[in-house]
Specification:
Helices cover about 30% and strands about 25% of the residues. With about 260 residues, it is α/β, with parallel strands linked by helices. It is globular and about 50 Å long. This is HAD family phosphatase.
């Protein structure tokens, strides 16, 4: 039995319309009841995961949240952060200056557990909606933020991603969580780093972990877990490093992976 099971949310537990089937909820809960500690691991902010944590009974089964693409570890039953990482202020300033060269891109920051932006587009509003929140317009650059998102239509990000990685790749970790989001976290901080941190915190051998995801920000987590599962709807580079490829989220494929490895 695997001691820890880490699940990405969007594109893994959710269907394309953002809903989660009751059968998926039941399967995750059953794995938790069988003794596997459940961890939701997402690029979402912590506050955007709390309701889901209760849905999956993490408050009753000593579960955790890994949020902001690995920047934070949150213990659900005690409602306390165990670990928090934040972007270096100078890097945030450089990103803020660089994004001004791309008027089609809107930056997203997280200030005092709120979604804030200095330029709004539909993808900023999408981030707020997904997290059951609103996005606040501000006229300053928040320097104390766990991560930064550049939000734009996928083709716009496709056009600049290589340039951005060349400019900032040695200064921070860059991941494409969704086609419309290019995400920046502190250098070396990602879901792969987070799975190692949580194993140290809980005294678990990383070989005893299971991880399932679909996006570019899930790749390192899937690589480092004892068993890494990619969804069939996931990116090709993510599927290439997985031990097992589950059916797509449209078919609730995560249930197949849970039944194979956790039940």
């Amino acid at each position: 039995m695997y001691k820890l099971a880490l699940f990405d949310i969007d594109g893994t537990l959710t269907k394309e319309d953002g809903t989660i089937d009751s059968a998926v909820i039941a399967a995750v809960q059953k794995a938790g009841q069988n003794g596997t500690r459940i961890i939701l691991a997402s690029g979402r902010p912590t506050f955007g995961m709390l309701d889901l944590a209760k849905t999956f009974a993490l408050d009753k089964n000593d579960g955790y949240i890994i949020s902001y693409n690995g920047c934070a570890l949150y213990h659900v039953p005690t409602q306390k952060y165990i670990i928090e990482h934040f972007m270096a202020e100078e890097i945030v300033k450089q990103l803020a200056q660089a994004v001004r060269q791309h008027p089609e891109v809107a930056p997203i920051y997280y200030e005092n557990e709120k979604i804030v932006t200095t330029a709004r587009n539909q993808y900023v509003d999408f981030e707020a909606e997904v997290n059951g929140s609103v996005a606040y317009d501000i006229n300053h650059t928040p320097l104390h933020t766990p991560k930064v998102i550049w939000a734009a239509k996928p083709s716009a990000l496709d056009a600049i991603e290589a340039q951005v990685r060349a400019q900032f790749g040695e200064l921070c970790t860059i991941a494409r969580s969704l086609p419309c989001f290019l995400e920046f976290t502190p250098h070396g901080i990602d879901k792969g780093f987070a799975i190692e941190e949580v194993c140290k915190q809980l005294g678990v051998d990383i070989a005893d972990t299971f991880a399932c995801g679909d996006g570019g920000n899930d790749k390192t987590m899937i690589e480092r877990a004892g068993i890494g599962v990619a969804m069939a709807n996931g990116r090709d580079d993510v599927k290439a490093v997985a031990d097992f490829i589950a059916p797509p989220n449209s078919e609730n494929g995560v249930i197949v992976a849970i039944e194979k490895y956790l039940l």
